[in-house]
Structures are given as structure tokens and as C-alpha cells.
Amino acid sequence: MVGQVFAAAVAALLLDGALPDLWRFGYVAATLIVVLLQYFTHRTFRADRNRLRRPKDWWLRLAAIYVLNGTLFGAMMVILVTLPREPAPLLALMVVVGMTTSVALTISVQLVLSAAVILTATVPAIVVLLLSPMPDSKLFAAAAVILAGLLLSFAYRLNHYFRRSTALVLRLRNMLQDRARTSEHAEETQRRLRLILDTAPFPIVVARREDGAFLYSNRPAAELFGIEGQLVAASPRYVLDPLHHQRIFGQQSTQSDEELQIATAQGKTIWATIAAVPMQYAGEDAALVVVNDVTAKHASEERLREAEQRLSDALAVAPDGVGLFDDQDRLIICNKAYADIAGVPLSQIIGMSHDEICRRSMANRPRPGQAGVRTDYQGWYAERVRTFKAASGEPHIFLDTGSRRWLQIRDFRLASGGTASLITDISELKARERELREANENLAAQAEMLAARSETLEAARKTAIKAHQDAEYANRAKSQFLAHMSHELRTPLNAIIGFSEIMAMHLLGPSGVPQYDRYAEDILAAGRHLLSVIDDILDLSKVEAGKMKLVCDHVPWSRLASDCLTLLRPMAADRMIVLQAEPAPEGAALYADERLAKQMLVNLLSNAVKYTPSGGQAALRLRPQSDGSAVVEVADTGVGMGPEDVEKALEPFGRIDSALVSQMRGTGLGLPLVKALIELHGGRLEIDSEVGKGTVVRLYFPSPPAVTGAN
Asked: Edge to edge, what strands does the sheet with 694-701 contain?
């Protein structure tokens, strides 16, 4: 059909210029419509289930369509023979003749339809050629008649061959039906057998006696052995193992409950029981084999045996006695510890009732007179029977008179209705209870002693508190006394110093007596020293009383060091001491109370100059820290101090026993005052000193936030 439409399109293209476009397109459209009618008619004919009941209707419909197709061919041929004899019309005529031949021979099964197509396609053209005045028209008419005759002859021969082949097919069909009827009974029997075997819920196979090949297997067997598709006798894909083949077909019969290992087609091994029945299958000796897969049952039994073995191993190594009783109170299993405690051999105790085990246990114990303790076996037996029947986990504690051990028995009810008994050795626990009881008694006695000591300590604490309060009161009284006395002494002392300065400087004229001048200088020096001592005592008292306030700020180090060295240089020059300040970073400052910082440095430099022999050195240095704090060091090459001297020098009025120290005038308040002032700043004082090599005193000034917080 597709070829016919394609040929019609080719003919239309060849007639370009010979016929108008409307005629050519109309011819192709008409051909397409006829082809579609043929297609839908044949399709409807095949799909209609009632076509055999109405054959005449279908034949008339097909005849109308093919006559229409032949008429279309005839009309086209009439048009072509009337056109001039040019190559394009002649080629188009050959195409139309070819389409006519193809359609006529295709439907030669229906000889009438084939003849109708040939005649409707050629007769009109032959008539037109015969009536045409052109000289070669008669020749074309004769050729058309010959072509029509040949087409009718070919159609007839094809129809004849079709009828003969149809008759041959009918004869073959009848022969096959006869053969099928002869084996119908056997096939029906075979079908029923397969139906029964296919619906069986267990694996069934038919094995050939000759080689053990599977001739048939139902669905469960195919799933079990991993066989894909249905087996046929001509191509078996699974063969019995020789051992199994011998068991099924040999002299040795297979027990129905005997478990065998069978290898499947997938390489797996299963456990199964098999039963075989001899039979004939497809004309061959075979056996119907029923296979019962017991792999899951075998695996469950194996897991059960492993679980029992693990339980036995666990019970064997368990330190406690464990026994399991059934619902009839008979012992099922126990470990050796349980049998030893019961006093019955392990080989005899299994299967005994609980009551019998208790009586055997009492019989194997020493008699009450020989036990060494007060023993009531009947009472023990009654209590033991009661706790076993209850099986609530209530502990039954008793002393084993045979092994001299304390034992505890606890019974538990199992879900199966049986009872589990657990015997635990609690001798160590009893010993610890006894030790704990004795320890509690000792603790009680010690508690009484501690209570008495606590009363004594409380009285001592109260006495100490009172002494501390008295000391604080005495300290406050001392501070108040020193402050008052310092004020009372400063007033006349200022007058003494002033008058002695007037006499020493001869402000009112010379005295005329040299000794008076020397006395005046001694009085002035003594007065100034006494004023310094009073000032130190007053400052130390203020610090101890908490009345000294700090006014901290950033003090330039260059100014502070210069002021201190200026005050001490005359004294250092008199003693021929080299006094210097090491260079510090530019802009370095010290966060402190400037007056008190100068007082601390002057006291330290004064001590360094006083206690350094002539020709020695004294140095002042600053070491700024990254966090804003600073370390001030005063170092000298003086007499130095030992560790015990350092502790003594830090005590108020403490003086060191040294030849050079004893020559110098001092009160022993310098270092204690410096220590008190640096601690008031929130810092600390450190002294590194060695006898004969010198001393280094360090003042640690904290960073500004810490000092501010201290204020």
C-alpha cells in the first residue's frame, strides 16, 4: 500500500507540465483515499469476530474497493494514452501499469477481484486506442490486449497454486489432528499429573533412571534447586548426585526421615528428606521424588545444640551454683558448684526432685552435735521448701556446716513454669559485715573521743579569739600611742632643731666658745635623726592602721630617679661611693604615689650607701614589663646579708649583727616601711643578698588597673 502511494506520487511528478497541478494532486489524493479504504477494510476484517457469519458482506465491500482502485488505474491510463508520445507520459504509463500488475497479482487469491482490477484498468485505455486516428494507436491497443491477457494468465496461475497449497495444508492439518487424537488420552493424563504436581506446596521432581537427570520439576522444586524455567525431557539442566541416585534407584532404600545433604544449582547445600516412587515419564524409566527441605529445622537444631553447649560451658565456669528445674520440680541441668554444695555427685543429681536433693543434702551434712554450731536441719528444710515453692527471689541465707561457708539461695520462676535456683557464696560479705560492725563500734568510740576533743578545741578557739582581739586592741592602742607620741615629740623637737640651727649658723653672732659650736652641730644632727625616726614610725603606724591613702599617677622615671640621686649624692661623696642610675627606655614612667615612691627609693639608696664600704657602687635601675607593670631594682656591692639576716631586717626595729652595720646610725625601720608601702601599692618586695658580695632589692609595681583596683 505504501508502494502504491509512492508510485502514484512518482507518476504525478513525471506528468509535471503535461497535466495541470489540480489533476496530478487529485490523482495522488484519490490513490491515498483508496489505499486507506483498503487498509481499514482489511484491518476491520481481521478484527471482526463475526466475519465468518457474514462472508458475503465482506466480499462485496472488498469488491467495491478494488473495482474503485481498478477504475482509478483505468482513468489514469486513458489520460496517458491521449497525451503526446513523449518520455514523461510513457514513463508515467509504465508506472501505472506496474501499480495495476502489483495490485492484481497481490489479490490473485480472489481471482474475480484480480480480473475486475485488470479489466477496469486496461479495457477503457484499449477502447480509446482503437478509436484514436493516430497510426500507432492500433499497435498500442494490441500491446495493451496482450498485457491484459498476460496479467489474467498470471493471476489464474497464482490462484491455482494457492488452491493446491491450501489443499495440502488442509491434508497436513487433518493428519496432525488424527495424531493428536490418538495421544489425547496420554496427554490428558500427563496434564492432570502436572496440574497436581504444580499445585503441590512441596518440591517434587521426576528424575530419569538412566542418569538421574531432572525431567520435570514443579515451582517449589525449581525455587529450591535454583532452576529457571520449566524443564523438558529433551534438555534437562540438573542431574542427581551419584550418591542420591544410588539411594533412589539402587538396592539400598532411602528412609523417609533420613536427612541428606543436597547441593542446589546455585552452589548452596541444603538438608532434606526424600521419598521416591518408580514411574514411567515420557516413555522413560523414572522416579517421582518428593523433597522435604529441612534446612531451617536442621539449622535450628544446630543453634539449639550450640546454645546448650554455651550454656553448659557458662555453667561450668560460673563460681556460683546454678540449677534449673522443670515444672515438676525435677532438676534438668546444673553446674558442678551446685552439685558440690548439695553434696550429691553431678552424675547422679540430674533428674532428681528438689525435695530429694534437699534430703540428700541434709543426710550428707555433719550431725547437729558434730557441726560445732547450733543447727536446726528440720527448720532449714521447711524454710528451704517454702522459698523454693514461692520462687519470688527471696534470699535464703544459711551456714553450710560442711564447708563452713555462708551461702545464699535465691529461686526465680521461669516463663516455662520451671524454677531457677542460684546459690551464692557470701562468706566474704559476711566477714565484711562483721568487720563493718566492728568498725562502726570503733567509730562510735572515736566519735565520743572526738566530741570531747571538740569541746576542748572549742574552748581553745574561744581563748584564741579573745587573745586575738586583745592583740588587735593592743596593736590599735600602740598605733594610737605612737601617733600621739609622735605628734607630742615633733613639736619640741622642731624647736630644738630650729634653735640648734641658729646657734650652728651663728645667726645671732659667734658664741666665742668653739666647744659650744660643736655641741650645737651635734644637737642639730641628733634632732634631725630623731625627727626622721619619728616620721618613719608615724608612716609605719599609718600603714598598719589603714589610714594612709594613695594618690597614684604616672610618675616620669627620669624625674623620680634624678630627685633621689640628688638627695643621696652628698652622702655618697662623703663615703666615696659611686652612685648612678642606669639608662631606662625613653618616656618610661612608674604608676605610683610619687611621694611614697620617692620615700621608698631614698630609704633603699640610703641603706645601699650606708652599708657599702668606700670604693663600692650603688645603682638604681628600672625594668618596664609588657603588661604595664614595672620592676625597680636597687643594687649595691656592700656587706650583704644571709637568709636569716634578711628575715630579721624586714622586722620593725630589726638590726643585723655586723661590724659595718653597728657603726652606722639607724633604727631598723627602713626596710619594714618600704615593704609596707609597696604592699600598699599592691606590689611586693624581694631581696637577693649574699654576705660580702652585695644586695639587690626589687620593688614590683603592678600595672595601672591593678593599682586602681587596690585604691
From this structure: 578-581, 617-624, 630-636, 694-701, 684-690
Extract the runs of DSSP E, i.e. beta strands, from 457-614. 552-556, 578-581, 589-593
Would you state the cell numbers that stand for residue 624, as one nine-digit string? 618596664
Q: Would you say residue 51 has pLDDT above 60?
A: no
Question: If phi over 0 gives left and psi between -120 and 50 gives alpha, with beta otherwise, what is residue 275?
Answer: beta
Distant-in-sequence, close-in-space partners of 305: CB < 8 Å, separation ≥ 6? none
**CA–CA gap between residue 685 and residue 674 (Å, rounded):** 8
- At residue 528 the predicted structure's pLDDT band, cuts being 50, 70 and 90, is low
CB 608, CB 575: distance < 8 Å: no
Q: H-helix or E-strand containing 525? A: helix 514-545
Cα gap 34→332, rounded to integer Å: 96
Hey, what's the cell of 390?
A: 514461692
Where does the pLDDT of residue 256 fall: very low under 50, low under 70, confident under 90, or very high at 90 and above?
low
The size of the chain, in residues, is 711
**Beta-bridge mates of residue 695:** 636, 689
Cα torsion angle, 313, 316, 318, 320, sign: positive
Return d(Cα 12, Cα 27) in angstroms, integer: 8
Residues 6+ apart with CB under 8 A from 340: 321
**CA pair distance 66, 106, nearest whole angstrom:** 11
C-alpha cell at 53: 457469519
**Is the four-CA dihedral 386, 392, 394, 398 of positive or negative sign?**
positive
Average pLDDT along the chain: 77
Cα–Cα distance for residue pair 314/334, rounded to 1 Å: 11
- Residue 99: the pLDDT is 77
Rounded Cα distance between 146 and 152, Å, is: 10
C-beta atoms surrounding 208 within 10 Å: 22
What is the per-residue DSSP string for 42-53?
Answer: HHHHHH-TTTTT
d(CA 33, CA 4): 11
Whole-prediction pTM? 0.34
